[in-house]
Amino acid sequence: MSFKEELNLRTEGVEEIIEKYLPKEEGLQKTIFEASNYSVRAGGKRLRPLIMQETYRLFDGHGKVIEPFMAAMEFIHTSSLVHDDLPCMDNDEFRRGKHTTWVEYGVDMATLAGDALLMYAVETACKGFSYNTSPLNVGHAIEILAQKTGIYGMIGGQTVDVELTGKALTPEQLKFIYELKTGALLEACMMIGATLADASREDIRIVEQIARKVGIAFQIQDDILDLTSTTEELGKPVLSDEKNEKTTFVSLYGMDEAKKAVERLSKEAIHDMHLLTGENKFLEDLFVYLIARDK
Ligand code: GRG
Q1: How far is the CA of 128 from the centre of ligand 1 (A)?
Q2: Is the pLDDT of residue 295 over 90?
Q3: Phi, psi angles (nearest 5°) of residue 98
Q4: Cβ(95)–Cβ(236) below 8 Å
Q5: Average per-residue pLDDT in the chain?
Q6: I need a labelling partner for 191 at 20 to 30 A (CA). Which of 27, 103, 162, 283 fits?
Q7: Secondary structure of the chain: what % helix, strand, coil (to 5)?
């Protein structure tokens, strides 16, 4: 089976897991379930839960405790996209090839759907306590999930990004934004996969470092695609960084340097994978594929 076929197969498996945890659309507050489910079902590459599952497998994890965490991670990622698209942030009307949540349900419901998905993610991750896994590891995984999403992670990065929009950034500010806004959730994916598989502290530290590099490379590639791809291919508007007056790696260093940085970071990440106790060739191939992706 080719890597692409394997990727499609495993992504389908991830889709099934996510679907299992979506709330039923019933009750007086039905609209919030519909708006949340619309946002999650709009699609996407599902790479965060996939990376989490593959890291769990890398450390020989083979239970189902990873599943609620995979769903929780996709809910958090989706909640960030729902809020990111709001008129008060990027004001985007299309995402994942569909209308954004605020266009479909209004700004009020989209704000609530983002909030709802965030908290429902925590509720979902807590289901990890009902499996036969060390409650200490489950508790630690929830701590990682909250920390990497919150003020010391993604939300912290987005805060600086919003505050500095329209201003010329220093390389340090740009690195800070990329590490937190995009890198932190990828770090959480790998660290949670490793923690639930009972990996050593040293291995958890190494996967955090690998994910940080993959996250920065992923964001730089996102900047590149914003300039080189099409709306049809990406499922969202291109040239949005320019429209939103964002300093990006490309605007700071140029396209050639951006491509070189993606390649350098991905090589370093693959190198670091070989420092780990376990191995997972599919995960290595996935990093190479994602970093060089065209959507
Ligand atoms: C409510 C949790 C919450 C957060 C609010 C808006 C916000 C704070 C954070 C935004 C973070 C953000 C949008 C970062 C960009 C990361 C990025 C490159 C996203 C695109 O990820 P893909 O390509 O998207 O994996 P798909 O659609 O494939 O899932």
Answers
A1: 24
A2: no
A3: -130, 170
A4: yes
A5: 96
A6: 162
A7: 75, 0, 25
Residue whose CA is at the smallest distance from ligand 1 atom 13: 81
Spatial contact of 250 and 224, defined as CB atoms under 8 Å apart? yes
pLDDT tens for each residue of 4-26: 999 999 999 999 999 999 999 99
Ligand 1 pocket residue status of 47, Cβ below 6 Å: yes
Nearest to 224 by CA among 258, 190, 273, 174: 258
Contact 276, 58 (CB under 8 A): yes
**13, 75, 127, 205, 206 from 139: Cα distances, Å:** 25, 19, 11, 18, 20
Q: What is the pLDDT of residue 176?
A: 98
Indicate whether 294 pLDDT > 90. Answer: no
C-alpha distances (whole Å) from 192 to each of 154, 162, 189, 236, 265 are 16, 28, 5, 29, 22
- Domains annotated for the chain, with CATH where assigned, are 3-291 (1.10.600.10)
Quick check: CB of 158 below 6 Å from ligand 1?
Answer: yes
41 lines ligand 1 (CB under 6 A): no
Query: Ligand 1 atom closest to Cα of 219?
Result: 18
